[in-house]
Amino acid sequence: MEAVAKARYVRGSARKMRQVMDIVRGKNVEDALNILRFTRKKSALALEKLLRSAVSNAMNIYGDKLPDPHDLTITEVKCDDGPMLKRISARAMGRAYRIRKRSCHMKIVVSSEES
Fold it and tell me: What is the domain-level CATH number for residue 84?
């Protein structure tokens, strides 16, 4: 039994998001939530919210067939680049530098051991 959760257009670069994803990849949901709760990165908050959504999706899909939601494991986490917001920063002598405000698309899959 597996459940999927996706978050699109999350503010933050995919590279920084992948650093946090590598920490929880393949872990138990309960362990991953504890790790994300005490990880001091902005990306950890978005990933924790997405993980809770995936667990909730599993509970809604499988209901009574799911013995305990904390017995789920993270089987797949994926992060891709999203669109960039392009802004201008004023510089000396009338020049303009480009500021790229990045976003990303995240996907997480949780499944139970019996599947």
Answer: 3.90.470.10
Closest CA to 112 of 60, 50, 67, 78: 67
User: DSSP label at 8?
Assistant: E
Share in percent of the chain as helix, strand, coil (round to 5): 45, 35, 20
Q: Residue 15's domain spans which residues? A: 2-111
| Domains held by the chain: number | 1
How many angstroms separate the CA atoms of 85 and 69, rounded? 37
Q: What are the pLDDT digits (tens) for 21-64?
A: 999 999 999 999 999 999 999 999 999 999 999 999 999 988 87
Q: Look-up: residue for tokens 């917001």?
A: 85
pLDDT digits (tens, 9 = 90+) for 67-82: 787 789 999 999 999 9
Taking the whole predicted model, whether its pTM rises above 0.85 is answered as: yes
Tokens for 19? 């650093």
